[in-house]
Every structure is written in C-alpha cells, then in structure tokens.
Amino acid sequence: MRKDTPDNQPELLAPAGSEEAARTALRYGADALYCGGPMLQLRAESAGMDEAELARVIGLAHARKKKLYVAVNSFVYDGDFADLVPYAKKLQAMGADALIVSDIGAIAAIRRAVPELEIHLSTQANCMSSEAARVYYDMGVRRIVLARELSIEQISAIRKNTPADLQLEAFVHGAMCMAYSGRCLISSYLTGRSANRGDCTQSCRWYYSLTEEKRPGESFPVFEDERGTTILSSGELCCLPFLDRLRDAGVSCYKIEGRMRTPYSVGIVVNAYRMAIDGTAPLEELQRELDTISHRPYISGFYLGDPAVSGTETVGLIQDWRFVAQAAADSPNGTALIETRNRIAPGDTLEVVSPGHTGRAFTVEVIRDECGQTLDVANVPMRTVSINCPWPVVAGDLFRARDAQSPRE
Fold first, then answer.
1. Which of 23-27, 77-81, 269-273 shows the lowest per-residue confidence on average (mean pLDDT)?
2. Is the domain of 352 the same as that of 243?
3. Distance from C-alpha of 2 to C-alpha of 175, rounded to nearest angstrom
C-alpha cells in the first residue's frame, strides 16, 4: 500500500488458535484477535481454548490495549440454548469484546441475555446484501463479517446503503471453502462429521476421480499437477495487492483466516499485512514473505470478479520453506539464543523475521549448546542453542530456512 495512506486504516484481525499463536499475532502487529472457546465454535476442538486459556488470551490482548472476539458461530439446535446463554454471560464477564455469531436464534438469545455485549455476524451467515445487513443491524448486530462471495463493487454498494455505524469486515487472507462460506455437506455425507458444527474433515482436500455410468468399474483421475488431483479444493485467498481497494469500498476490518494455522504462519502473515497497511515495505517484498508459509496457490477470490479468472487449476500445497527456530531471548550482540523447531547445521542459510522487518538472511557458522560446546548439528526439537547472527533479535523472533529440494531464487 502507499505510504500516504490515511490514518483511519482498517483493523487488522488475526486468528488465535492457541495462546502461542495469540502472543505471536500480537507481537507482529495484530490490532485484534479472534478465537474459539470450549463450545459452539466452527473449528475442531484443538483450535478451541478452554476457559483458563481463554482468560489468559483476553488478558494478553487487553494488556496491549487490543481486542479479543470469541467465535460462537456454530449453528445451534434447540438443545444447545440451555448452554448458550450461560456461556455468553460467562464470556461477557471474562471480558470478551464481542461474540462472532451465525445463527439468527442465537443472536436473539444473546441479545436478550447480555444486551451490552457486542455481536459480530459470522461469515457463515452469508450476508450478501444491504437489505440483509440492515435486518441484522436492527437485531443489534454492529459488525458484519461479509460473505466471501462478494465483489469489491458489491461491498461498496452495501457500505453506501447501510448505517454508518455498522462495521464491515472482510477476509483478506487464507483458506477458502468450496461451498458458500462453509455451508458444506460433503464432510457430513462422507464421514458423519458436520462442517456446520465445527467438525469438518476437509473432504474437499481429498483425492477424487470421475466415473462414467456406461463404463462401470472404470475410474478416471483428473490430473492437475504432480501433487495429485483435488478437483473440489480451492486455492487460498490473498488480497495483499488490492487492500486499499477494499478499504476504499468501506471495509473497516481486514480478517486473516487460520485458527488451525501454526504460530509461525500466523506471525508471517500478520507481519506482512501489518507492513502493507503501514506502507513500510514494497508489496513485492511482502508477497515473497507470504510465499514462505505453507499454502495453496494464491487467488483473489470473488473480490475482482469471476473467481475462475484468478486461477484455481493447481491447488496442491506449496511448502518451500520450513520454520527452524524461535528466538529464546533478546540477543543484541551478534549471538542469538534460539529454541529449535527443525534441523540446523553450520553452512545453512537462515532468515530471521522480526516485527516490522521482512526476512534478513545470514549463514550459520557455529552452533553451541547450553554448555558452550560446539555442535555439528542441532536436530533435537525444542532444544536451546546459540548461533551466530549479525542482526539484533528479540525473544519471539522467527527463523526459517528454504528446503534444500526447493529451487533457489
């Protein structure tokens, strides 16, 4: 983005699937976090926090004067309401800044029980028009997480035809569902696990073949590339090149997908978008940062028109880089104390990523253990070692290496 961007930039909202991911997102510049709690959220249980962890993450955010939104966006049955209302009251008492809700009945119940608690409409509700947005506004919703299926022009029309204090939030980065904003029945049909209840098996990422009714017993794989056939699987959204167009259309919050993502992935993506919003690095340099995380080919989704134009033919995972270590302490003097995550050896070229910086490369010359003994290799995860590093680093900084089999730039 330009360096002359206005001061009223949209909020940068980051996923927090764990306490470590929350800390990383805040370090790298998130304005707010969203997470799931122990129930009624649309991610697997591993991405939902228990009450103790949720309380700590709310405290982390508020200590930095940032906000924390809790997803309560499962579609609910009659039997769920006995738990929903006490849960909403508990989240309000814990200090949640807003609840992200999909179900219209849940919205009404929460509004009656805790009218002072802000409600954001989840993208699962598929709000695609100003008429629908005004209905939700009249119910007390104060932010709409827009359906991913909207173009920039359609978002602009919604902004012009809704109350000024109704905020519009849009996804700008991450995985996209092949169904309308997650309303998918494939997982339920094939495995009995409902995507709309937080238990999606990501069946769209599986490998499929076609059959023709007059040729029983014969199957025809649809080859796309060397990674296999994933004909139902979407590419990943990346709005970095046109963030300013979303802002100018009236988007007040940029949302990053990824409560199932690693803290490394969250940190890299948040850092890139933070720097784009602040105009502190060229977009080409920031795009390279996004290329270092595990991802499927990036697409612009529906924002620029027909999603087919942005290319969805090759959707295998791209994993050219690996996260190798995290700074264990502040190290200003040329020697970095790190906690390993993957193998490191002398001669490796690493990059260190600090908040507000893109990757800075250096060559590992020496590795020492806790006793100062020289090591030929550091290949035990979570081990604390020291390495030479020409850059000053701060605890929490991320180190990565390009996989040897990947082509060099």
1. 77-81
2. no
3. 26
Q: What is the count of structural domains for the chain?
A: 3
Q: How far is CA 355 from CA 63, 80, 397, in A?
A: 18, 42, 8
Where does the pLDDT of residue 332 fall: very low under 50, low under 70, confident under 90, or very high at 90 and above? confident
- Read off the pLDDT of residues 3-50 as tens digits, 9 standing for 90 and up: 444 568 999 999 999 999 999 999 999 999 999 998 887 655 555 799
Residues 6+ apart with CB under 8 A from 127: 121, 133, 136, 144, 145, 146, 147
Residue 157: inside a domain: yes
How far apart CA 35 and CA 297 sit, in angstroms, is 26
Please identify, among 310, 340, 373, the residue that sits at the C-terminal boundary of a domain. 310
Q: What is the number of other CB atoms lying within 10 angstroms of the CB of residue 33?
A: 27
Whole-model pTM? 0.86
The predicted model gives 396-409 an average pLDDT of 75
For residue 383, what are the domain limits?
Answer: 321-402
Task: Give the mean pLDDT of 190-198.
Answer: 61
Q: Do 286 and 329 belong together in one domain?
A: no
Whether the CA torsion 259, 260, 266, 269 is positive or negative: it is: negative
In terms of Cβ atoms closer than 10 Å to its own Cβ (0-12, 13-18, 19+), residue 304 is: middle
- Last residue of one domain, picked from the residues 248, 283, 310: 310
Query: Do 279 and 398 belong to one domain?
Result: no
CATH number (domain holding residue 378): 2.40.30.10
